[in-house]
Write a structure and sequence with these properties.
18 helices, globular, 85% helix, disordered N terminus, mainly alpha
């Protein structure tokens, strides 16, 4: 009789676990769902602004200049990631633990160390790039002043972008959802507002005017973010930070440096390589299609902002069952909300691209391939963040290294002949391999399965 009851209970538990969308009805899921709802709302709001910004850029700039605009943004993302020396994920991990212990002093120490590291290396990169800018201006852009100014904006934006990321990640680490979501999404509305003001006042838009508007927007974001951080947490005294903690934080950051660089190459590498192996038009087609594809996977971005500190907190408590439940339920949430949007983007690709101008409709196949890659990413879930926040950053770094190698190899092979289409194919295969490897490693290292 007891055996029969035990078997019935197991079947009942399995049924609940497999069929319920939110199968872990406790404080974890309440926190994830409520926080994700806030972040998703703000991200959706910002994404719509970002979509309109892309439409404005493609409508008011030539296809070539639009391509250069997106190329500069990709280079800023890439170089500022190098300048952040891996503090991105280290901030979230260290602050999540300190926040759990309500150790505000430690939180302030992490912020101070992060800012020092980021400013030191970002400014170093900017100084190194200045002579290179003049060389590119003279030998690659034929001495045309507008392109020299474009390269100057690129250099100036690197430190500011790095600082902005540190502030945003800090709010994520302490689970301040609203400031994190607002600061992470405020740039696009500011950018759109600035572009519309410039167009209304001058009746036109140039590449350098668009980049100057972006610069003002990022400066405003940094100023607001820093003010609110200081209002929440007092400035730390550098002399009170122990040497052992500095060493620990630096080691964690530098060990994650390669990981974050590989991750940004996965995200922006195809656009940068198109700037090398193809022309401005193909770059613009790929950039617009890629932005749409990333936009439709917005639920994944929203949940990642909540899941990273949650994964770190639960792993520190050594609760594997709870970790697996949250990973599974969050993946189901992502699939449930994202699949309809992905299907719309896939089947109505020409109509969506027509909003950017008639020239962009030719990139319909590019968009469909990139959307398919995003579907794989959503279906697998936040495996990369789960590995990193569980201390297996070396495993994730190896996965990304394999994926980036494939991305570069296929890009070099395909881009010279196929342009944006070659970039989309390379991105799809690299993204798929990275996520499948992550799924396998999550099972091997953490004994966590997506299904079962």
């Amino acid at each position: 009789m007891s055996l029969f009851k035990q078997s019935s209970n197991k079947k009942e538990n399995k049924k609940v676990g497999n069929n319920a969308l939110f199968n872990y009805a406790n404080e974890d899921n309440k926190e994830i769902v409520s926080s994700a709802a806030i972040i998703f709302s703000l991200k959706l709001f910002a994404a719509l602004f970002g979509f309109v910004v892309s439409v404005v850029i493609t409508r008011f700039l030539s296809v070539e200049d639009a391509g250069y605009y997106f190329f500069v943004l990709s280079m800023i993302a890439l170089l500022s990631t190098v300048g952040r020396v891996g503090v991105d994920n280290a901030i979230v991990r260290f602050m999540a633990v300190a926040n759990k212990a309500q150790d505000h002093g430690q939180i302030s120490h992490v912020f101070l160390l992060s800012m020092h590291l980021v400013l030191k290396f970002s400014l170093l990169i900017a100084v190194i790039l200045m002579p290179l800018v003049f060389f590119l201006y003279c030998y690659f852009f034929g001495g045309e002043l507008s392109y020299y100014l474009m390269l100057i904006w690129l250099v100036l934006l690197i430190p500011l972008t790095s600082m902005s990321t540190v502030i945003v990640q800090s709010f994520q680490g302490v689970k301040r959802v609203i400031p994190f979501a607002l600061l992470n999404n405020v740039l696009r509305p500011l950018n759109l507002m600035g572009l519309l003001i410039v167009i209304s006042m001058m009746g036109t838009l140039t590449l350098n005017l668009a980049l100057s508007v972006y610069y003002i927007g990022i400066m405003t974001t940094v100023g607001i973010g820093y003010y609110y951080w200081r209002k929440s947490y007092p400035a730390a005294d550098a002399t009170t930070i122990s040497s052992s903690f500095k060493v620990e934080f630096h080691q964690a950051s530098f060990s994650l440096w390669g990981l974050t660089c590989l991750a940004i190459v996965m995200g922006q590498g195809a656009q940068v390589l198109l700037g090398v192996f193809s022309d401005g038009e193909q770059l613009a087609y790929f950039a617009v299609a890629n932005r749409i594809a990333i936009l439709v996977a917005i639920v994944l971005l929203a949940l990642n902002g909540i899941l990273s500190p949650k994964f770190a907190e639960i792993f520190a408590e050594n609760d594997k069952k709870r970790l697996q439940d949250i990973y599974r339920s969050s993946t189901r949430i992502m699939l449930f909300f994202t699949s309809p949007i992905l299907l719309v983007a896939f089947f109505f690709a020409p109509q969506i691209l027509a909003l950017f101008g008639p020239d962009y409709v030719s990139a319909s196949l590019v968009l469909r391939i990139l959307v398919a890659g995003q579907f794989v990413k959503v279906a697998v879930g936040s495996v990369g963040q789960l590995l990193i926040m569980s201390g297996f950053e070396r495993v994730q770094r190896f996965n990304l290294f394999i994926a980036v190698t494939i991305l570069v190899f296929l890009s070099v092979l395909l881009m010279p002949s196929y342009g944006a289409l070659g970039g989309a194919i390379a991105t799809f295969f690299a993204m798929t391999i990275n996520n499948v490897l992550g799924l396998i490693k999550v099972y091997q290292k953490l004994n966590i399965k997506l299904i079962g």
